[in-house]
Amino acid sequence: MNTNDFDYVLPEDQIAQTPLRTRELSRLCVVDRSSGSLSHRHFKDLNELLKPGDLLVLNNSRVVRARIPCQKEGSGGAVEVFLLEPPGSTAQRRFRVFFKPARKAQAGRRLRPLLNPEAGYFEVLEQGGEEPGLVEWQGKSDLDAGALECLGVMPLPPYIKRERIPNYAQSKIDSRYYQNIFATEAGSAAAATAGLHFSQKLIAQLKKKGIEFTEVTLHVGAGTFLPVKTESLEAHAMHHERYHLGADCLAQIQNAKREKRRVVAVGTTSVRVLETAFTDGPRGLQASPGWAETDIFIKPGYHFKVVDALITNFHQPKSTLLALVSAFYERSKILHIYESCVREKYRFLSYGDAMFII
Question: Can you list the domains of the chain with their CATH numbers?
Fold first, then answer.
């Protein structure tokens, strides 16, 4: 399958640069696969669209301040350090990173965090370039998510334009809104953006109606921003991501499938966990709880074992995430829907609007 088969025209002015302050007022494109119908609603309308007994699967991974503005010792030149797999609660010292610009991060250089130079420095072990580099943290203590709160800024995707160090007001907004309200497990380099539309008010309404919730953890790596560079989609190498499936979630999924209730994945990260962890056999869906890794590449032709409906944001052209959504529905129909939503002036990508495929 050719990567160009997943292309569409995305006007730059429809790439959302700021979040909506009222999360559930984002628009929602509702796609019914059985009838082929398409309707334009708002995210708060999930209270009408979901049915009692539906099971929503959320990714509770929390975004870490993995983007660290630094300056070179001696020259004072600016270099950004982006941790590919940021630490959660466990502190560590060595990290795979992207440098920006990579040419300024020669091996042996010391890079001090601009926001707190006295905390320590990164020693560049490998410069990298197109491939990730390697740094070792030399500081008063090892780095964990808590320490990064004083060193880094929110790792927004490159298509959301910000100053190198955002002003205080913008930084506060991004810190609040580029984070799911239910996120508790630190370790992601990017938000699981389909969940950004949920508010406490909406979740309370859904629970009151009889909608069930469960959580998985998938720590999103910086590889999620990497474009597909191969002409053939199959030739693209997927990045690995760590995930956790709890015993309670496992039981809830099995019960829902046994009782023929819908399993609704909130975001492509939840899809990747469920479709990796579960196998379908003579005894029904089985999985082992605990931590594991996934590099699953879901594209057209894939048979979904677990997920019955999908809530997702709109994705970049020629991306693995668009391929995943095209596996859940027909590629040509998904592209037609995307084109329709461009005409309808939807807001796209991380801070943008959402789609509900049933």
Answer: 3-63+179-357 (3.40.1780.10), 67-152 (2.40.10)
